[in-house]
Amino acid sequence: MLSTGVRLPVVALGLFLAGQTSAVLAQDIGAPDAAATAAGTIPPGVEAMIRKAAESDDYAKIDSVADVAKATYPEYESQISELASSLKAEIEHERVVELKNREFFEGWKGSIEAGFNKTTGNTDETGTLFQVDTTREGLTTRQRINALHDRQKTDGDLTRSRSLANYQLNRKLGERISVYGLLGWEKDRFAGYTRRFTESFGVGYQLLQTDTMSLSVDAGPAFRQIRYLEGDAKNEVAARGSFAYRWDILPTLTFSQDAAAILDGTKTFTSTTAFTTKLLGALSGRLSYYVIHEGDPVDDRKKTDTTMRLSLVYSY
Q1: pTM above 0.85, yes or no
Q2: Residue 251 pLDDT
Q3: Res. 40 pLDDT band, cuts 50 70 90
Q4: Do the Cβ atoms of 190 and 208 come closer than 8 Å?
Q5: What are the angstrom distances between the C-alpha of 31 and each of 42, 45, 73, 114, 153?
Q6: Could you tell me the CA-to-CA distances from 241 to 11, 57, 119, 221, 253 in Å, in that order?
Q7: pLDDT class for 291, splitting at 50, 70, 90?
Q8: pLDDT tens per residue across span 164-191
Q9: In contact, 255 and 247? CB cutoff 8 Å
Q10: Concatenated DSSP letters of 37-83
Q11: What confidence tens digit (pLDDT) does each residue in 187-204 have?
């Protein structure tokens, strides 16, 4: 234990350092002077902090910095609120102008996924997956294009070969509600058809939207034109529904769940559950579990196929 003679200098040194730290912080933030108070203007250091936060184009960050500034300088609360609101209005104006002036091929964001699996031993299996998923947000619209090819060989024989391509257009009616139109094409000989077209329209709704979590659903009638392996064709009226859930568990880890169902004579259900983690730059790793259920498969094939796969994902 320190003696009284030793403790006194230590306490004095601590008080001195604390005072110096407070002075530096006050200088960085910008302590108000008499002229600033009289004029009702925000201290320059506080204004600089809020403008620096606005460079991120993140409303939440602007509000967070503004709240701290108002708690520190309550006498400038109205001026700080006005500055934060004007900066957010500038960001929104720039966003609207940018969206209006976009060319069709500008503004697309999405991912390219490539997966491979190899099993040896009693069963020799080789599988590949290639998928592109891209979205373009407009001022009042959202477009999404998704294409996939999934192929597998078992003991040298082709046991899975499925391809699909979808285009969906959403027209925003408000912050949460939209109407959609969808066009889809599929080919899966092991499900019994050489081609299957799907058209659907309906209503979409954003059930949940936070900084780390989102959930959207859509539903409506659908129409299908199916060409079977034997050459027969069939047109059907169906009901379609889907949902998409995203959860950013960590800044580098995301959980996602996508599912869709089409209820007609064949009753098709698909589901993809995935964990995606960032690896390096735009490159991520993904562990996914895929389920497809066809209510009326050909021959003696099972109604449900499942696949678990590791893949690499490039985001752009």
Answers
A1: no
A2: 92
A3: low
A4: no
A5: 10, 8, 9, 55, 71
A6: 69, 34, 35, 9, 27
A7: very high
A8: 999 999 999 998 999 999 999 999 988 8
A9: yes
A10: HHHTPPPHHHHHHHHHHHTTT-HHHHHHHHHHHHHH-GGGHHHHHHH
A11: 998 888 999 999 999 999
Report whether 129 contacts 309 (CB < 8 A). Answer: yes
Cβ(262)–Cβ(240) under 8 Å? yes
Q: Say how far apart CA 62 and CA 55 lie, in whole Å.
A: 9
Token code pair at residue 192? 């019994």
Q: Are 238 and 223 in contact (CB under 8 A)?
A: yes
Average pLDDT over residues 94-123: 84
Dihedral in degrees, nearest 10, Cα atoms 28, 30, 31, 34: 150
Both structure tokens of 282: 């735009």
Distance CA 128, CA 106 (A): 30
3 state DSSP class of 34: helix
Smallest CA-to-CA distance from 61 within 211, 253, 175, 206 is with 211
